[in-house]
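Box S1 | Example of a co-folding query
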Amino acid sequence: MRDGKLTPRMDFHLTHEHELIRESSRRFAQEEILPGLRERDAKAEPDPEFLKKLAKAGLTGVSIPAKYGGMDTDYISLGIVCEELERVDTSARVAMSVHSGLHCLTLLQWGTNDQKERLLTPLANGDKIGAFGLTEPNAGSDAMNLSTRARRDGDFYVLNGEKTWISLSDYADYFLVIAALEGSDKKAHVALIVDRNSDGFSSRPIKGKLGVRAGNTGQIFFDNVRVPTENRLGEDGDGFKVAMSALDHGRYTVASGAIGIITACLDACVPYARDRKVSGEEIGRKQLIQQMIANMAAGRDMGRLLYYQVGWMKNAGLRHTREVSMAKWQNCNFAFAAANDAIEIHGAYGYCDEFPVERYFRNSRGAMIYEGTREIHTLVQAEYAMGYREDRPLKHMLPKWPFGEDA
Ligand code: CAA
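Box S1 (continued) | Returned holo structure for acetoacetyl-coenzyme A
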C-alpha cells in the first residue's frame, strides 16, 4: 500500500517499446536471415555478413546502457529479440546469446567503469563482437576442472590451453575466457578478455554438426597469449563466479529463443494441418493431431511466463540463478518436444528439408546440451527443492533497469 492505494505487484503487459522491438526484430529476421537460409544450413555455411547486419540494425546493443552506446532497453527486450530471431533460425539467436548474453551482460555486471567504456562501447555499437570460452575437451558440465592455465607475469597473464564448442570462434573479436590460475589453489580461476589479434591466438571451425549448421562453432587455442591485467574481470579467484554469472545471462537467451522455435513449429503445423486431408477430413480435426498442437501452445505460453519472469528479475536487480536454470531446462524440453511433434504432423514431408520442421528438430536438440545439460539442470533444481542449494546476493549484481548513473 502506498498513499492508501494498492501498488500493483504484477503486470503481464508488454510495453509499447517491447512491441516495437518485437516488430523490428521480427522484420529483421524475415528480411536478413530467412533469404538463403535453407542453402546455408544445407552447406553448413554461415552468412559472413550476418554480424554486420545485426550491428547495423542496432541489435548488438540491446539491453546495454546508452552511455556505453547501447539501446538502453530493458532485459525483457533481449529475450524478445532472441525469441524473434530463433523463430527464423537458431544460429542467429546463438550469435545474440554469446555476444549479448554471455559476453556483454557479464561485462556490464563485472566490469570496472574503465573496462565498460573501453570494451563495452565498441561491442554495443557492433564495431566488435564478443564470445565466451569456458568449455574444454575435458571440462563441460564439470566447469571447475579447467586445463587452460593463466600465469601472472608482471602486468600480464600468459594464457595456454584450448577451448572447444565456442560459438563465433572464427568471427568474434573478444573472448571472455575462464582459466585456472597457475601456482594457486586448484579451484582458483581468473576471467580474462582476450583479443583475437593477440600473438599466439588461433581458431578452427568444428564441422559436421547435427544442428545450428548456418552458424559458426569451433575451437580456440592459446599459445603463450599475453593478456593485460586491465582485461581481467573481477579479481584473481573470481573466474568461476564470472563464468556462472555469464551463464545466468546466456541461459536466459537460450530459454527465450526456445519459445521462438515453438512458435515456428506452430507457424508451420497449423496451416499444414488445416490443408492436409486424410479420408476427406483435414488432419487438424483429428484429436491426436490436436493433442500435439495443444501441447505446443502450452509449451509456448508456459515457457514465455518462465522467461518473462527472469527478465523481470533482471530488471529488478534480483539474483535469478534458480529461475533461469528452470526456464532454460523446461523451455528447451518444450521446444524439442514441439519440433519432434512438428515432424510427426508433417509425416514423411517432415523428414526432408522441403519443410523447415526437420531443421527445427535438429536445432532444438543442441540446446538440451549447451549452457548446462538437462541432467545438470535437473540436479540443480532438485538441490534447490531439497534445500541443499540456495541463492545469496552476489558481490557484483547486474545493474537494475532503468539504468542509473552507477550502471
Ligand atoms: N553467479 C555468480 N556466482 C555464482 C553463481 C552465479 N550464477 N553460481 C554460483 N556462484 C558462486 C557461488 O556463490 C560459489 O561461491 P562461494 O564459494 O563464494 O559461495 C561458487 O560460485 C561456486 O558455486 P557452486 O557451489 O554453486 O558451484 P558448483 O560446483 O556446485 O556448481 C554446477 C556446479 C552448477 C553443476 C556448475 O558447475 C554448472 O553450472 N555446470 C554446467 C556448466 C555449463 O553450463 N557449461 C556450459 C558452458 S557454455 C556453453 O555451453 C557453450 C556455449 O553456449 C557457447
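Strands lie at 130-133, 149-153, 156-167, 174-181, 189-195, 201-205, 217-228, 232-233, 277-278, 281-282. Residues 243 and 356 are 34 Å apart (CA to CA).
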